[in-house]
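=== RUN LOG ===
request id: a7f3
mode: sequence -> structure
chains: 1
length: 436
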Amino acid sequence: MGFVDKKAGPAASPNGGWDTKYEFRVIALLTLAFGLVGLDRWVLPPLFAAGMGADLGLTPGDLGNLVGVLGIAWGVSAMVLGGLSDRFSRRKILVPAVALFSVLSVLSGLATTLLGLVVIRAVMGVAEGPVASVGIATAVEASHPKRRGMNNGIFQCSFALFGMALAPILATQMLRFMSWRYVFAVVGIPGLIAAFLLWRTVREPATIAQRSDAPRAAFKDMFKHRNVALAMLGLLCAMTGIFVLSAMMPSYLTGFLKLNAQQMGLVTAAIGVGGFIGQFSLPAISDHLGRRTTTVIAFAVSALFLWAFIHTGQSLGMLFALLFVVSWANFGALSIIAGPIAAEAAPLGLISSVTGVVVGAGEIFGGGVAPSIAGGIANGYGLQYTLWFAMAGQLLGILVALFFKETAPRRVGGSTGEVSELDEYESKHPEGIAGP
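=== RESULT ===
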């Protein structure tokens, strides 16, 4: 799905008018926006472990619920607003969402009670949900089919880089100079700039512009491809691992392994560094190796190295290395499922609806319910047992991934059968599905 700028003329490309300049520009801006989503969302756990929780009189169970309520709101919003963006507008959903979650990050620093923080984080989840579902659809529509996995990986990997790699380090280092309340304000401001740039750049797809050569599939066709239902379950498994570990790891490292705040911040950063590389590399690998094979391997590697992490003591280097590999594989699986697998199973005109349903299901249960369950496990049995819960998600993910229908364009040889109406449309319209 490329774009042809009617004012500038077709891009000089062997692909016949593909607007590569627009492709690179929109992927860069989406990458920035989704990175800020990760930063605003995941600055909470390290701040919580480093003093915020004590200041507000909160427990690890409260942290699990705070992470969970945002995830549930994110999931519902991704479904609803993702579907609306297929009907009305990408920009009119995406841009206000980016601006709103940035403002709500600032407001998080003003909370004085658990209830106030829950309300703020829930509304933040509503704003962040469409950045995932609409963002994935926008990235798919801007990408050449052979770069679909790679571009979705680039877009999604910033979530891990900003949220899990930079957030713990930035948060714990900024706490040396300012209150945790001001940290929320500092990380919220850049999103307003990203929202303005997205408004200036993002184009609407032809299915919204209602061009005569771009028919829209019926909503009832959304689940025709078996990968849609499987992706919903597979993303639940991936997100259970990621969000349980991300939410509970700072408290596990300080409360169970007795590391100090700076040591905790450095080890926790392995989640983001590994996730960043995994979300970038594994979807690109899946363009060549195949979506199904790469996802199965990713879940298996994540489970194996998480088992080793559970049996490791206070060795900072070993903890970082093992958590890096766990996150590399787990985030890679998430990125493949939420990006190319969901998009390639979507009927034409329902890309954001399908990705919204897939991301929403994963968020509601993996990103919302799972951290709340993990918080209950931590309160009732101990922080160390939350890691076994995360591992269960990886083991189930292996089983689910074995049943995926392969859809990578290079692996299916251009066949369109059950693969996707998307690829069939692109084979007939090499200029892409979006207007100028």
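=== NOTES ===
Confidence is low (pLDDT under 50) at residues 1-16, 414-419.
The chain has one domain: 20-427.
=== END ===
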